[in-house]
């Protein structure tokens, strides 16, 4: 019997879609889930996602390395935000670090009791789908969007995951959101930068001089990692 | 200066998008807004949209012709639902009739104080966009969706409107939802039945033996009408 793969476009719609899934893939391509993949691939021991600046400050006072981003910028008083490059730093190796972001960590917070959270992005697409296809479980891709609105890059990433899983022959989908995400991905596949050129969030980050980050976030399959949430911490999946 | 055209995928998201638009195009392709166009094009004097069965019953007791649809079917105790063919009946000519539907009349209800409501569908696409392009106003397409979820046919119709208006050179868009709707429309354009074949709502209606309705709803530009909401009633725009 086939398993189900569906796409939810925004955390705000999560309650309409959440029932009956065993795995939730949280996606925030620009940039939280990409940064999480980059950090864990580069030796960070664990990333603790928190959904408020207050909680992040608590951790900072306890001596943790803490990243905080709101609206694309590092929050005052914190050392880094959600740039994937921030996490590629030798001082992060084997550390547990803390992260709060505008959209991505919120998605984790609202979905963490609804299924096993795994982290999706364009940089770990292949490793993630290779793992997902073997799970025999119903899977929901939760796009983080932008301040509760639909966004293009997360939807395309979710569409890629749905497309790959459905083509494996082991999955089906029922929702129009999933069909549309697949179509957007198929259109983006031939020219991802072209389709995303017009994306509102990409323009927003470009205005903040984050072109290097954007290029990193949109380059597929650089990292062979599958981050999962375990006991409130994002760690690398141990396949043994 | 260019005007703005944007797409909101669901009534549930309307509060995120509603600010600053002067015209709201309410879209419920399968089938409420198609039926409204068909009715007014076929001589119905006005259609009074109501958002509850209770209000619909009140009108029925007052002697009105009243249609009521929930989940694709005629509600018990009412004479018709939202099939466009219901309204092509000589007994409707010059009458004011009442309609309540699962998604479409709800969209009208939540948006009626945010701008001038006009009715969009695939059957009146050309007449509608010919009129919209001349208005010099900011326009939001509000998709009715299916029980608050994204749906494919309304999004494609909204994408067609956005595409036509932007190509006129008089409009721009900022939102990723609008970009995506345009892409979905461009993909659907060459083969609308192909893309919609998989749509969840189309499957739902097909199971109810409504293939004739579906074919009508998806045939572009049959009707040269622009329905607008005036004093709580949907009537034909008088361009004089």
Structure at a glance:
Chain A has 10 helices and 11 strands. By secondary structure, chain A is an alpha/beta fold.
Please, how many helices of chain A? 10
H/E element order of chain A: EHEHEHEEEHEHEHEHHHHEE
Most extensive interface: A-B, 28 and 28 residues
- Gyration radius from CA atoms of chain A, angstroms: 16 Å
Mean pLDDT of chain A: 93
* Major sheet size, sense and barrel closure of chain A: 5 strands, parallel
The global form of chain A is: globular
Topology:
Two copies of one chain form a homodimer.
Chain A: E1 3-8, H1 14-17, E2 23-27, H2 32-41, E3 46-49, H3 53-61, E4 65-70, E5 73-74, E6 96-100, H4 104-111, E7 116-120, H5 125-132, E8 139-143, H6 152-167, E9 171-172, H7 176-189, H8 192-197, H9 200-207, H10 211-217, E10 227-230, E11 233-236
Parallel strand pairs in A: 1-8, 1-9, 2-7, 2-8, 3-6, 4-6
Antiparallel strand pairs in A: 4-5, 10-11
Helix pairs in contact in A: 5-6, 6-7
Protein model, in words:
The structure is a homodimer of 240-residue chains. Chain A is α/β, with parallel strands linked by helices and 240 residues long. Chain A has a single domain (3-228), classed as ComB-like (putative 2-phosphosulfolactate phosphatase). In chain A, 38% of the residues lie in helices and 20% in strands. Chain A has helices at residues 14-17, 32-41, 53-61, 104-111, 125-132, 152-167, 176-189, 192-197, 200-207, 211-217; strands spanning 3-8, 23-27, 46-49, 65-70, 73-74, 96-100, 116-120, 139-143, 171-172, 227-230, 233-236. In chain A, helix 5 (125-132) crosses helix 6 (152-167) and helix 6 (152-167) crosses helix 7 (176-189). The mean pLDDT of chain A is 93.
